[in-house]
Amino acid sequence: MCGRGFDHRATHQEDASAEDGDVDTTTGGGSTTDDAAANTDETGTNTEEESTTTSDDEVAVEVAVGPDGEFGFEPAEVDVDPGDTVRWTWQSDNHNVVPHDVPAESDWVGTTDGEVYDSGFAYEHTFEVEGRYDYHCEPHRSVGMTGRVVVGDVDATTSDRVVLGEDAPARVVVGPEGEFVFEPGTNVAPVVRPGTEVRFVWGSDNHSLTVDERPDGATWTGTEGALHDAGVEHVHTFETEGRYRYHCEPHESVGMVGELVVASE
Known about the structure:
The structure is a single chain. Helices cover 2% and strands 35% of the residues. With 265 residues, the chain is an all-beta fold. It has two domains: 13-151, Cupredoxins -  blue copper proteins (Immunoglobulin-like, Sandwich), CATH 2.60.40.420; 163-262, Cupredoxins -  blue copper proteins (Immunoglobulin-like). The strands form five sheets. It has a five-stranded mixed beta sheet with strand order 2-9-7-4-5, with no helix packed on it. Strands 12-15-20-19-17 form a five-stranded mixed beta sheet, with no helix packed on it.
């Protein structure tokens, strides 16, 4: 399986190493505290000119962080093989990469210590453990700035996901507490069993449920672009197994996207 992302952007690189496959880099736009830090790369070498410090690993996928000033990762989801390296490159300011749902065997911690970085900064990680890695930008998670890395062939694995409809009625909140997210759906893609009725409940105003992707034979059409306000409910019974992706039309640009997987035991 090949990594999926936008065009690779070549940079002049200097050798550096980092624990756990993580590498942080800057091209003059990242956070620095004084002139000495600005002229010293991560290997301790004094650098009078701007430089980008990365690992020697070949980058399989590039992800833009905050492209064009938007609160999102582009692409929002990437597929890679075990051993592949993903590079995040900052295209606007005040962002970070913080994992919130990773395989139990993984040690990925993202950009640590809660630091945020600015345009020009870059960060890499080499993924070894198969599974889904969901992450977000801490300052902008509430407006849907989330992403996902899928390592290996894990589409058939649903045991590590939230299953709706087993202990309580299956329910997804649209815009809870005014946030531009589906809960669950934006940060975590829930699983429902075939034949489950899912109730989408509007928690705030001016949202739609627009279907982007559905399995062959599925009939779900969402609200077909219609906007609704708090208190409205949309109900659908999901019969066809597969992945369903959807978004809120007015707020897709700020990351209000969702996903749901219909799968048997």
